[in-house]
Amino acid sequence: MTDIQRVGVIGGGLMGSGIAEVSARAGKDVIVVESSAAAVDAARNRLEASLKRAESRGKIESADAVLERIQVVVDLDVLADRQLVIEAIIEDEAAKTELFRRLDAIVTDPDAILASNTSSIPIMKLAVATQRPTHVLGVHFFNPVPVLKLVELVPSLMTAESTTERARTFVQDDLGKNAIDCQDRAGFVVNALLIPFILSAIRMLESGFATAEDIDQGFVLGAAHPQGPLALADLIGLDTTRAIAESLYEEFKEPLYTAPPLLNRMVEAGLLGRKTGRGFYTY
Ligand code: NAI
């Protein structure tokens, strides 16, 4: 176990609320900072719904006991006493760097870790926005956070080894997840492999090589994947899939990371997958 007891999470959306939930379930005192009163309510509702579900499935004894350990607020200054802050706001480089600059001035403990859940922004850009780059690293969770076991730990060139090791103990011993180590490169390990795989499946569909159903069934039955690449793209969201592809291409300039025209047309049409009711499949 770590000595980390006071955790801050910035952004209470899909990922931030999940990170707050698993931290509070591990007994931590958690403060979530959101951007407006309406977003605070939405984050609270998301947390309550998820914890009630966990309670009804017998995964936790009492949702209320966990909720008591979580405050959701608008004021960033309340993070002053935190030992670990995990940023999970929208994927916008300017917004994140500005936030790290402010956070650096607010958090008083010189040993505190300032982490980001970013999927594609270089950790170094966040680290150099602070006066303590040795204490900044990427801690990349997977959706849904309470269910998926993996966390990618992403130190930048300037992260102290002690920071990475403390974050590893938090993730593994305190939260009960599994950590893998990644370099500070776009896509880290999982997305750098997954996204070109999904893009290849889209190219296969686009060229008339096979149907969506057959491509997906091929992977489910032939490679024991829980779902095929096109169904997975619908789950991730086609806009998100394309955004990650763009950041991979931006970093590596490899054709395998370019978005196929079919993906571009679907995003332009608003066919984003499950969240809009239609992507490669209709929901
Ligand atoms: P989301 O859109 O569900 O949540 C973002 C939240 O941040 C919103 O509730 C918004 O109100 C809040 N926010 C925006 N600006 C803020 C600010 N300045 N201060 C406080 N709160 C602010 O997004 P999601 O999906 O939770 O993603 C968050 C981060 O996690 C992004 O960096 C994303 O790349 C990363 N990520 C997303 C994954 C996914 O599957 N969606 C997986 C792993 C990482």
Notes on the protein architecture:
By secondary structure, the protein is α/β, with parallel strands linked by helices. It folds into two domains: 6-181, NAD(P)-binding Rossmann-like Domain (Rossmann fold); 190-275, N-(1-d-carboxylethyl)-l-norvaline Dehydrogenase, domain 2 (Orthogonal Bundle). It has helices spanning 14-25, 37-56, 63-67, 93-106, 123-127, 161-174, 190-206, 212-222, 229-236, 238-252, 261-269, and strands at residues 6-10, 29-33, 70-73, 84-87, 113-116, 136-141, 150-155, 178-181. An eight-stranded mixed sheet has the order 3-2-1-4-5-6-7-8, sandwiched between helices. The radius of gyration is 19 Å and the shape is globular. It starts with 5 loop residues before the first strand and ends in a 14-residue tail after the last helix. The model has no long low-confidence stretch (mean pLDDT 97). The protein binds 1,4-dihydronicotinamide adenine dinucleotide. Residues 10-16, 33-35, 39, 88-91, 95, 99, 117-119, 140-143 line the site of 1,4-dihydronicotinamide adenine dinucleotide.
Entry summary:
This protein has 283 residues and is of the alpha/beta class. It has helices at residues 14-25, 37-56, 63-67, 93-106, 123-127, 161-174, 190-206, 212-222, 229-236, 238-252, 261-269, and strands at 6-10, 29-33, 70-73, 84-87, 113-116, 136-141, 150-155, 178-181. The protein has eleven helices and eight strands.
What gap, in angstroms, lies between the N and C termini?
A: 43 Å
Overall average pLDDT: 97
Poorly predicted runs of 5 or more residues: none
Name of the CATH architecture of the largest domain:
3-Layer(aba) Sandwich
The secondary-structure class comes to alpha/beta
Cα-based radius of gyration, to the nearest Å: 19 Å
- Tell me the name of the CATH homologous superfamily of the largest domain: NAD(P)-binding Rossmann-like Domain
- Give the overall form: globular
**Reading side by side through the largest sheet, how are the strands ordered?**
3-2-1-4-5-6-7-8
H/E element order: EHEHHEEHEHEEHEHHHHH
Number of strands: 8
The total count of helices amounts to 11
Top CATH class of the largest domain: Alpha Beta
Bound molecule types: 1,4-dihydronicotinamide adenine dinucleotide
What characterizes the major β-sheet? Answer: 8 strands, mixed
Percent in strands: 5-15%
Helix content: 40-55%
Using the coordinates shown, work out and report the CATH topology of the largest domain: Rossmann fold
